[in-house]
Prior knowledge:
The chain is an alpha+beta fold. Helix content is 58%, strand content 7%.
Amino acid sequence: MDRKEEGDVNVTTGEQVVIFSHDAKKMLEAHQQLIESQNKVNKSKVAKKHSKSKGKKARAAAKNSKGKKRSKTSKGKKSKVASKTSKSKKSKVAAKASKGKKSKKKGNARKSRKSSKHTKSKNKQHKSKHAEIGNTASLNKEGYESVAAVKDDEAMANFITRTMESLDLVVRGQKGKPGFRGMIPYYSGTKGSRTFGALKTELLRIARLPAGWCTQRGSSAPLSKTGFDKIMDLKDSDELAIFAQRVAEDLLDAKVVDEDTFHKFMQYYNGVKGKKGFEMLQEDMKFAFDTKKGWLAPIHGHLEHHGEDCWDACKGQVGHCDWCGSGNSCCPQKARANIKEACRDVRFARKDALDDDAYLCSTPISPATVPVSEEGYQAIAQLKNHTKMTRFIRRVISKLDMSVQNDHGLDVLTSFYSGEKDTNRTFAQLQQELTGIAHAPDNWIHPRGGSASLDDKGYQIVANLGGSEMYKFIERALEKLGWQITKGGQGWANGLASFYSDNKTRSDWDTLEKELVRTKNAPIGRLAHYKKQEEK
């Protein structure tokens, strides 16, 4: 093979052939490496410069964005500050305006108050003159005419109020105020005028009406359901207490001796603990009196010293003498002029062998103390006193285990037995008539727990009378089933009676009977066999 020299030309490629020596090759390689390293360094410098330029751009962009944000926040702050300042300015302006309005209103209010006070003072001065006439005019024909001449409703209202007080009348609570106001113009002269006699007559007539707008006070109200209801409308505990004391005195011949216990008792009637009715008031008082609870005591004791002259023992004093018994009197047998009140309408002790001039112990003929018999009836009938006979008949009705539901019916019946219309009636006739009325449908006498029929009609009647009468009704219903209440079951029976007589929980006869049957099947010490108890 031919050796080629440096500078020859390659035939196939046409390139000049360069031949390097060994050293030359090394130098060339080193040179190429140097060039490559320089190129790398240059490239890295270019990349750094490029990255720096990118960083500058990013920082510039970030600066721009921060600046924009700052401008936005500054703008927001400025806008908030501006809005706050504008709001504060507006609120200040509004506050000033409202203060101005308020001050104007206050000024106007002061002016109006001053003017109203001025007009009121004028009206008071004007009214006080007229009111004074109504407060000072004498309660007679001349006084009425002087008040009517003024033609002022307020003056006449004062005059009528004073007239009512003199008659022991009072406006019937809130119910009575419209009627009272409506009456005034027809007596004051503004719509008409009448006479003083007509005024008193009309007031007394209205007071007797069940729905009248005025009523008698507790010291004079009729001792009946109507009178009790009217006193309840007054919502005055003191008036009700006075009424109840009269019930004890007139119907039981008893007086209150323990005020604290009495006022606790009245809480079940005046609304503090309950609102029982008139019939229950009588029954509860009678129970307290008969069982000697301690807060009621008899006014008149038993008539003592029959067949003895009381003149010497009573030291020659006619009238009250405790030797004859507590609350009783020593009186002459013959009626005398100007005799003491204590010796009028009295029942004498037996004189036995004493003559007619002897002084005998006596006790008032009271419907509360005379026996419920022919003797007691005749003693009351001889007085020919409608009120006393009414109270005696109430005792008879109570003894027959009945209750009065309508005072008018009782009033009509009394007129035939009081001696005013007929003097030939007897106690037996009275009992028979009362029994017939009680068994007639929808009448003014109703049976009570001890006599009401054991059905729904009887249940509904007894439920209106309260828990004590329902207790009696339940006792009779259990007796019919052959059972009776034990001592341990009395609490259960009282609770049951209260439940079935309360207005909110009362039911019917069928429900009560089913409950009694369930209890009978599982008595748990509440009930005992009635027949076994009787045998014991």
